[in-house]
Amino acid sequence: MLHVLVGLYIIGALLGVAAAMFVNHYRLIYGLPFFRPFVRFLMYFSLLMLVLLSTYYASANLEQDGSSQATLRVLWAVCNTALGFVAFSGWLVSFLQVLSGFEGTGLTPASRLLPTVLIAGAGCSYVIGFALAAGGTGSWLRWSRDLYNLAVPALLIVAMAERLRRSGRTEFVVPRRSVRAFLLMYLSAYVIAFALPIVFQRSALLLLALVLTATNVLPFVWVRWSFLPEAGAAPALAARRVPLSAIAERHSLTEREAEILECVLKGSSNAEIAAALSISVGTVKNHVYNVYRKMGVRTRGQLHRYVREAGAAPRTSAPTPASSATVSVDRPRSCPS
């Protein structure tokens, strides 16, 4: 049982890091306000997986008797609790920022008040709990930790349910249907994870590990199957169109370099571009290098930011924020979609 739990949380942490990298790719391309906190949320969730992994592994391997490991147990408890506190706090704040980012805004002072009070209160109780535990008195630390760990997902469930309830009269910078899909997916996952220990007491830990690990697959599903197909239909994202040819002319790009720039901005890899244009990967790399050199950038992320800030972005099915613009150019016939 222990080895299964440890394995699931290792997989969950790795999936969380992979999901963060996946979401960060679209953050660099489209710059929508919810992507940045979404990346942080996934990283904090991966940290939470590692904390749970440490909890189960240490409880089975650290001896409970003998003074030789007393110091080790204390150090582990301090580090694990501190990391857990950071993971839960970051998880809470970043997810609330994601929900606000769907509306193109940040957290308001009112929406920051409850998380601030909750985090500050938990921090104080953790300090008191450590002091009492050091004095050999009571189990305040365990109770404060358990209550905080329950309060954070409960607050997220309430926040998502409230956002879903009023989604029909809220203006989002991304399609309303995609926001609802996001809320329903994560709301379902958290409700299931919250209810498992009550419904299935004997196998609750295993089922909870399965659900939490599966939760880190949701970003891949949501972005690919909900956000990208629906985003192009959002009228609120319409913006002025600036020809990509202006960018190419400004930086003296050749026709081939402009074509490859369009493909790069669409998110195509070097191998995909090479296959679509019937040229070698090495030739694509040379053209990409020349584009970088002429435009004064070093990475694809810098290239996307430069084009976005210059008022141009590739015309794809995915959106750009209202403050940006889209490219008004004919898509190259051979450029991969």
Distance between the termini: 45 Å
Q: Write down the overall mean pLDDT.
A: 81
Q: In total, how many beta strands?
A: 2
Number of helices: 13
Strand content: under 5%
Total domain units: 2
Within the largest sheet, what's the order of strands? 1-2
> Could you tell me the radius of gyration in angstroms?
24 Å
Note the main sheet.
2 strands, parallel
* Unreliably modeled segments: 233-242, 312-333
Shape designation: elongated
Structural class: mainly alpha
Query: SSE order in H/E notation?
Result: HHHHHHHHEHHHHHE
- Roughly what percent helix? over 70%
Q: Layout of SSEs?
A:
Layout: H1 2-30, H2 35-61, H3 70-101, H4 109-134, H5 140-165, H6 176-199, H7 204-215, H8 218-231, E1 241-242, H9 244-250, H10 255-265, H11 270-277, H12 281-295, H13 300-309, E2 326-327
Parallel strand pairs: 1-2
Helix pairs in contact: 1-2, 1-7, 1-13, 2-3, 3-4, 3-5, 4-5, 5-6, 6-7, 6-8, 10-12, 11-12
Features:
Arc Repressor Mutant, subunit A, mainly alpha, elongated, two-stranded parallel ribbon, 337 residues
Description:
The two termini are 45 Å apart. This protein has a two-stranded parallel ribbon with strand order 1-2. The longest helix is centred in the first third of the chain and has 32 residues, at 70-101. It is mainly α. It is elongated. The model is unreliable at 233-242 and 312-333 (pLDDT under 50). The protein is built from 13 helices and 2 strands. It has helices at residues 2-30, 35-61, 70-101, 109-134, 140-165, 176-199, 204-215, 218-231, 244-250, 255-265, 270-277, 281-295, 300-309, and strands at 241-242, 326-327.
